[in-house]
Design brief:
Layout lengths: L1 E5 L2 E4 L4 E8 L8 E6 L5 E7 L7 E3 L7 E6 L4 E6 L8 E7 L11 E6 L1
Length: 116
């Protein structure tokens, strides 16, 4: 299993980013996928998951609901997280992981920093 995240960066409060995760080494279309994040000094936090059935049913944590959209492209083995209205408390390293509401295995992460 290999998961490679990208798309992070430094944005101002209220800005947007789209994170990407390139998956390989397993049958991507057969697995639910998840985004988790880890803020400095804090535990891993589940952010969002998308199932493989029904075209991909999304689930969101209360902390991001209404501001983020998870999506997947099974033809490209790609997972995405579009984040809008970013807040300083969204600052974290974001990881994609294989499975539903899981945090392992996961990639190396991509840093998102939101300035106030």
């Amino acid at each position: 299993v290999q998961l490679v995240e990208s798309g992070g960066g430094l944005v101002q409060r209220g800005g947007s980013l789209r994170l990407s995760c390139a998956a390989s080494g397993f049958t991507f279309a057969n697995d639910a996928m998840t985004w988790v994040r880890q803020a400095p000094g804090k535990a891993l936090e589940w952010v969002s998951s998308v199932t493989l059935i029904g075209g991909g049913i999304p689930y969101y944590s209360d902390s991001v609901k209404g501001r983020v959209t998870i999506s997947r492209d099974n033809t490209k083995n790609m997972l995405y997280l579009k984040m809008n209205s970013l807040k300083p408390e969204d600052t974290a390293v974001y990881y994609c992981s294989k499975g539903l509401k899981t945090n392992y295995p996961r990639g190396q992460g991509t840093q998102v920093t939101v300035s106030s």
